[in-house]
Automatic annotation (TrEMBL):
<feature type="domain" description="Glycosyltransferase family 28 N-terminal">
    <location>
        <begin position="3"/>
        <end position="60"/>
    </location>
</feature>
<protein>
    <submittedName>
        <fullName>Glycosyltransferase</fullName>
    </submittedName>
</protein>
<dbReference type="InterPro" id="IPR010610">
    <property type="entry name" value="EryCIII-like_C"/>
</dbReference>
<dbReference type="Pfam" id="PF06722">
    <property type="entry name" value="EryCIII-like_C"/>
</dbReference>
<dbReference type="InterPro" id="IPR004276">
    <property type="entry name" value="GlycoTrans_28_N"/>
</dbReference>
<dbReference type="InterPro" id="IPR002213">
    <property type="entry name" value="UDP_glucos_trans"/>
</dbReference>
<dbReference type="Pfam" id="PF03033">
    <property type="entry name" value="Glyco_transf_28"/>
</dbReference>
<feature type="domain" description="Erythromycin biosynthesis protein CIII-like C-terminal">
    <location>
        <begin position="285"/>
        <end position="392"/>
    </location>
</feature>
<keyword id="KW-0808">Transferase</keyword>
<dbReference type="InterPro" id="IPR050426">
    <property type="entry name" value="Glycosyltransferase_28"/>
</dbReference>
Length: 404
């Protein structure tokens, strides 16, 4: 079967699909991953065919104002839609659509008749169990959670309106609003598999049929890859260190955050590794090392704890490694994942990004590293995640579509 996975956004929105793609390829399928050009090296390194989705507007995860966030998202998806019509060719047998690309991909499936399946990294369907994850809000109770969930979907429809109108015109389809297309998919019980652990988000009982939680899809990394020599030397020179990194968050705040991190580590009596990321974290000293991008699967099991922004991928990677965390959520779905980690006991209570200080970070680090309960909770979570196989569940769902 010729499969096209379409994903877009930040690195965390794309990297898990490299692992899913390689798993599907091992099962005998031809797999292409359509995404923006910035991630072409990531796709090709996984041995997958790359197809470009045009989008000049950069997705900035550190945009915190809701109006600015919606404006940036609308510009991004409008540009994305312009190239989307070229993503699938006549030989594509199945489209796998991410949270970001599904509202565009649905129109492509209508035009081509190609079957599709949702492969989401965030829960978007309204539920009484929790409020919309992108809002960062705390639970307001079942009725209010569902109401705000429906409102969030309507806001997402507005973000996609211009992109959908242009895409349908290019595909020679009659006008149709994003909200009407979404309702069609819901009424048809369009299948969506969610690539996160049932430990973090058990499947809500009030979800419609067709929505399932299947376990993570882990980013591909070369099994022959090793950590750089300077990292190995640092790891071997003393007790397990703490990693501090904010991924694609906090651009331009590297000097301030680096100072906070180093003061907190030293106050807590811990060694540290600073991951530069978009913020540009950096520090020198015998007790601290600065690194660039490294595979979580190689580094995280060697750590005492991870300080991170609570992105979905980093949160899952820390659990997979059985390592406790201190979360510093910035925006969007990060407060949701941060609270989930804390509820499991695998992380300290979140420190909102705007409230981060060296003193608060040191106190949380001292707690998660030296109180055994956090480590035990993280280790238990690792065992749960190891028993899940998200890629296998996608394969089984694909077979169901083919049989149908």
């Amino acid at each position: 079967m010729r499969i096209l996975i379409a994903a877009a956004g930040s690195r965390g929105d794309v990297a898990p699909y490299t692992g899913l793609g390689t798993a599907l390829r091992r099962a005998g399928h031809d797999v292409a991953l359509a995404t923006t050009e910035a991630f072409e090296p990531l796709v090709r390194a996984a041995g997958l065919e790359f197809r470009g989705l045009t989008a000049g507007t950069r997705v900035r995860g550190d945009v915190t104002g809701k109006r600015a966030l919606m404006g940036t998202a609308a510009a991004f998806v409008t540009e994305l839609g312009q190239g989307f019509a070229n993503a699938a060719d006549d030989g594509t047998d199945l489209l796998l659509l991410s949270t970001t690309t599904a509202p565009l991909g649905w129109h492509l499936t209508e035009a081509t008749g190609t079957p599709s399946l949702g492969v989401y990294l965030q829960p978007t369907a309204p539920t009484g169990d929790f409020p919309p994850v992108v809002t960062g809000a705390r639970s307001l109770g079942p009725l209010a959670n569902r109401a705000t969930g429906h409102f969030a979907l309507r806001m997402a429809d507005r973000v996609y309106a211009q992109a959908v109108a242009k895409l349908r015109h290019r595909l020679h389809l009659p006008p149709l609003s994003p909200s009407r297309m979404r309702r069609r998919r819901e009424e048809a019980n369009w299948p969506v598999l969610h690539g996160f652990s049932t430990l973090l988000v058990p499947r809500p009982a009030d979800w419609r049929s067709g929505l399932e939680v299947v376990g993570n899809w882990w980013p591909h990394h070369d099994t022959s890859q090793r950590l750089p020599a300077d990292v190995e030397d640092f790891l071997g020179a003393g007790p397990a260190p703490v990693l501090v990194g904010f991924g694609s968050m906090a651009s331009g705040e590297g000097e301030r955050l680096s100072g906070i991190a180093v003061r907190a580590l030293r106050r807590a009596g811990l060694r540290g590794i600073l991951q530069a990321g978009s913020a540009g974290l950096a520090a020198d000293g015998d007790d601290v090392l600065t690194v660039g991008d490294l595979p979580h699967a190689l580094l995280f099991p060697r750590l005492a704890a991870v300080v991170h922004h609570a992105g979905a991928g980093t949160s899952a990677a820390a659990l997979r490694a059985g390592v406790p965390a201190v979360t510093v959520p910035v925006t969007a779905d990060q407060p949701f994942w941060a609270r989930r980690l804390a509820a499991l006991g695998a992380a300290a209570d979140p420190i909102p990004f705007r409230d981060l200080t060296a003193e608060r970070l040191a106190e949380s680090l001292d707690r998660v590293v030296r109180q055994e309960a956090h480590g035990r909770a993280a280790a238990g979570a690792a065992r749960h995640l190891a028993a899940e196989n998200g890629a296998d569940r996608v394969l089984r769902a694909m077979e169901g579509l083919t049989d149908g």
